[in-house]
Structure formats: structure tokens, C-alpha cells
């Protein structure tokens, strides 16, 4: 349930509302906007159904929420959330770009990639140290050695690190090196992992599952928020359809849908979304024009020898072109790097 407080309501009115919610064994969630205060009520459905709040002083109206996700919903929190990663912001008027190789392969590869990422003007270095590969015989990542390389290359270039977590038992280890945990498409509904990340002290970037609906995706985000971690960034990375020309079908309508349904920032991954480097720049431009808060792009100094996802990785030169283009489109959308 959402309780909309009247603009003329007082602090005591709000305190009264809070007291009644808590006295009924329910959770009180406050969202103070510029001109409206909204209270979210979470907990047992039956208790909420019996909760009578309309007559309380200061209450303008109450709204019942039908969707199961609440903390991540726009109704609970009308203003855009801006996730702050030690000074680098994601959401609102900020345009954020994360870029780097699919996998951390070697020190030379990563250093070259990190330089190119910085020169292009992106803020985050990406790269998998734990790779969830479809085949067990494919390169699985360098694990902690890769994490160390990521941190070093990022620090040398003033970048933040985003990297994938595939096992909840790695949370502490990855948290030592990374600034943002990436939950990959294959783990979007790994509920034990989501619950663990709900207790994490660092933000989480949650990719959309391979065949997930927007509602399932937002419910997955709700798991993290319900654990206490509301620093969540959504990432649209394409979904499985009957089309085979592209690796996935990049669902840019999800950007507009998420903006309507949720206050969380959303970024787009046109690399996995298309699987073809030729399509990454056009889809990156379209993503920003659709209202995305940023991008995650695979860049490799030598895509032809990449150990994974070379087909969809941009060369440094093409990455620079992409950055120039998205800066211009971002400006039109009121967003700056
Ligand atoms: C990746 O970012 O390299 C990755 C594995 O992405 P996804 O989970 O979207 O497939
Ligand atoms: Mn990849």
C-alpha cells in the first residue's frame, strides 16, 4: 500500500502514520520528494488489507499496489534514483559508460583496454574474472588473479570496476576489488545470490535474464532491495526470441517500460544484445535516445584474438566513435558523462 501525505501535513502527522504502521507489525518506508511525501507499507497482505489509514491526519489518499515488487516501483518512490559509486553517479542527469573486455585475459590486454576506456571518456572498466560460459570447456576466467588486474588497471586510469559474481560465496572476495557487482543474465533468478547481495555494501548491476519478463526482472531487483541494498542498476542485455541473425533481441522498449514502472537507473548492453560489433554503435545510440542512463560495451584491443565474445567487441577506434556519438545524443536527452 502507498500512502500519499497531503502537502499541508506536519511532522506529527507523519509520525502518527509511522506509529500506526509499525504497531500493526508492518514495515514503514519513506520517500520524501520535492513536493510530495509518500509512505510505502510492506508486509503481510492480510494485515495491509485491514489497515485503515484514510482517516489519519495528514493523509491525502491511499493506493493499493497490485504488483508484487514494491521497493523498486515508481509508485513507492516517484523520483529517479541516482546510484552513487564513490562519486560516479548513475541515473538522473548522468550518462554512465562501462566498457572493457568480455573477460580479463592478461595484464597487457587489460591495460590496453583500460587506457582506451579512459581515453574514450567512460567511467567504469568492465571485465569478467568469473565467466559463466555455456560450455564447461570454454575459458572460465582468471578468478582472483583477474580481479587484481582489474583493480590495478582501473586505478591507473581513474576508473571504477564492475565485474560479475556467479557464486554468493565469492561476495567478499569480489567486494575487495570491485566497485559494483554484476549479476549476469544466467543468474538473474539465482535467489540465494540475490539475497546475499541484498546484504552487500556495494551497488549491484542486475542484468535481465535470457528469457525474463520485465516483471520477473523487477521482482529479482526487489529481492536485493528487500535485503536492504537499494543501490541497484538494471541492465537490458537482450532477450531470446525466434530471431537468429542476432545473438539476442535487444529490447529497447524495456528502457521505456522500466522508466515507467521503476525509479531505478537502467543501462543497456548492445554488445550481448546483438552479438555483432557492427550493430553495437547504432544500438548504443538508440539506447541513449530511448532514455537509458548509460551503456555497458565490450571493447578489446584485438577482438580477433579475444578468448570470448570477440565478434561483439569493439576496437578502441570504434569505441571512440561510439563515445563521441553517445555524448551528442546524451546532451539532447539532458544527460552528460
Ligand atoms: C558479460 O557481461 O560478459 C555477460 C556474460 O553478460 P550476460 O550475463 O548478459 O550474458
Ligand atoms: Mn561477454
Q: Helix share of residues? A: 25-40%
Number of distinct beta strands: 14
Rounded average pLDDT: 97
Main beta sheet: 8 strands, parallel, barrel
Q: Helix and strand string, N-terminal first?
A: EHEEHEEEEHEHEHEHEHEHEHHEH
**What is the 3D form?**
elongated
Distance between the termini: 37 Å
Explained architecture:
This protein has 337 residues and is α/β, with parallel strands linked by helices. The strands form three sheets. An eight-stranded parallel β-barrel has the order 7-8-9-10-11-12-13-14, surrounded by six helices. The longest helix is centred in the C-terminal third of the chain and has 17 residues. The radius of gyration is 21 Å and the shape is elongated. The structure holds phosphoenolpyruvate (PEP) and manganese (II) ion. Phosphoenolpyruvate binds next to loops.
Describe this protein with a few key phrases.
binds manganese (II) ion; alpha/beta; 8-stranded parallel beta barrel; binds phosphoenolpyruvate; 4-stranded antiparallel beta sheet; 35% helix; 337 residues; 14 strands
Blueprint of the fold:
Blueprint: E1 2-5, H1 11-23, E2 27-32, E3 37-42, H2 45-49, E4 59-63, E5 83-85, E6 88-90, E7 96-100, H3 107-120, E8 124-126, H4 143-156, E9 160-164, H5 171-177, E10 180-183, H6 191-198, E11 204-207, H7 214-226, E12 232-236, H8 253-261, E13 266-268, H9 270-274, H10 277-289, E14 294-298, H11 316-332
Parallel strand pairs: 7-8, 7-14, 8-9, 9-10, 10-11, 11-12, 12-13, 13-14
Antiparallel strand pairs: 1-3, 1-4, 2-3, 5-6
Helix pairs in contact: 3-4, 3-11, 6-7, 10-11
The chain binds phosphoenolpyruvate (PEP) and manganese (II) ion.
Manganese (II) ion (MN) is lined by residues 102, 272, 298, 308-309.
Amino acid at each position: 500500500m502507498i500512502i500519499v501525505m497531503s502537502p499541508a501535513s506536519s511532522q506529527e502527522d507523519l509520525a502518527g502514520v509511522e506509529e500506526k504502521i509499525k504497531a500493526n507489525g508492518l514495515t514503514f518506508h519513506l520517500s520524501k520528494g520535492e513536493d510530495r511525501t509518500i509512505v510505502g507499507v510492506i508486509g503481510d497482505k492480510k494485515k495491509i488489507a485491514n489497515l485503515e489509514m484514510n482517516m489519519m491526519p495528514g493523509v491525502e489518499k491511499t493506493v493499493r499496489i497490485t504488483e508484487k515488487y514494491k521497493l523498486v516501483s515508481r509508485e513507492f518512490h516517484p523520483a529517479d534514483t541516482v546510484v552513487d559509486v564513490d562519486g560516479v553517479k548513475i541515473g538522473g542527469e548522468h550518462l554512465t559508460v562501462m566498457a572493457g573486455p568480455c573477460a580479463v585475459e592478461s595484464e597487457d590486454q587489460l591495460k590496453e583496454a583500460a587506457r582506451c576506456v579512459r581515453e574514450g571518456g567512460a567511467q567504469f572498466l568492465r571485465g569478467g574474472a568469473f565467466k559463466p560460459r555455456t560450455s564447461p570447456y570454454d575459458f572460465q576466467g582468471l578468478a582472483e588473479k583477474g580481479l587484481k588486474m582489474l583493480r590495478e588497471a582501473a586505478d591507473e586510469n581513474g576508473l571504477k570496476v564492475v565485474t560479475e559474481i556467479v557464486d554468493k560465496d565469492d561476495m567478499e572476495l569480489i567486494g575487495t576489488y570491485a566497485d559494483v557487482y554484476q549479476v549476469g543474465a544466467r543468474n538473474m533468478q539465482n535467489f540465494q545470490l540475490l539475497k546475499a547481495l541484498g546484504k552487500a555494501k556495494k551497488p549491484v548491476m542486475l542484468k535481465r535474464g535470457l528469457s525474463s519478463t520485465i516483471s520477473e526482472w523487477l521482482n529479482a531487483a526487489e529481492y536485493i532491495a528487500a535485503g536492504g541494498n537499494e543501490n541497484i542498476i538494471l541492465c537490458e542485455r537482450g532477450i531470446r526470441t525466434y530471431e537468429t541473425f542476432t545473438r539476442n533481441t535487444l529490447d529497447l522498449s524495456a528502457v521505456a517500460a522500466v522508466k515507467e514502472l521503476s525509479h531505478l537507473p537502467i543501462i543497456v548492453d548492445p554488445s550481448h544484445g546483438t552479438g555483432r560489433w557492427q550493430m553495437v554503435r547504432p544500438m548504443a545510440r538508440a539506447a541513449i535516445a530511448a532514455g537509458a542512463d548509460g551503456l555497458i560495451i565490450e571493447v578489446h584491443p584485438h577482438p580477433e584474438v579475444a578468448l570470448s565474445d570477440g565478434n561483439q567487441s569493439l576496437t578502441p577506434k570504434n569505441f571512440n566513435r561510439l563515445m563521441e556519438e553517445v555524448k551528442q545524443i546524451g546532451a539532447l536527452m539532458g544527460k552528460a558523462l
